[in-house]
Amino acid sequence: MISKLSGHTPEPLLALKSPINQQGFKYWNDKRGGRCMPARGDIEPSEIHKILPHIFLLDVRAEPLDFRYRLIGTKMDEHMMGSYTGLWMSEIAHQKAPSRIWASCRHVTEQRAPLSSDTPYVGKNKEFLTTEDLIMPLSDDGEHVNMLFVTVGFV
Hints:
It is a single chain. The protein contains 3 helices and 7 strands, in the order ββαββααβββ. By secondary structure, the protein is an alpha+beta fold. It has a 7-stranded mixed β-sheet. A hairpin with a 4-residue loop joins strand 3 and strand 4. The longest helix is centred in the first third of the chain and has 14 residues. It is globular.
């Protein structure tokens, strides 16, 4: 089950527009097998080399809830408004709670299910209108989300 964020209300997702996100979801879904979600150890960068530039890995801290940028793909780094590797979202003014990205990450962490949303693109590349992000949970114990696997497509 995957949902799409419309405004601030998740809705069932019928289709992902971005080929990057389609590949990311297929990979995540294949890796989870019959489990609720895969573990970080299941993710092999060599198996997803084509989409690696478009991914983020975020650590999840439960108390207090926060998300830390562990890995930022090269394409994503080009489009960021700063260098975020190692930073917690709570340290980034436009991303800390109650921002939309914070709310999406919290939703995925609590629901233990992927979520996609479209966000108007703000950046230097004028050929993009929106970004479609897909946030997918990872869990080392199969129950608690301890990392988020995020893919982003520009559409």
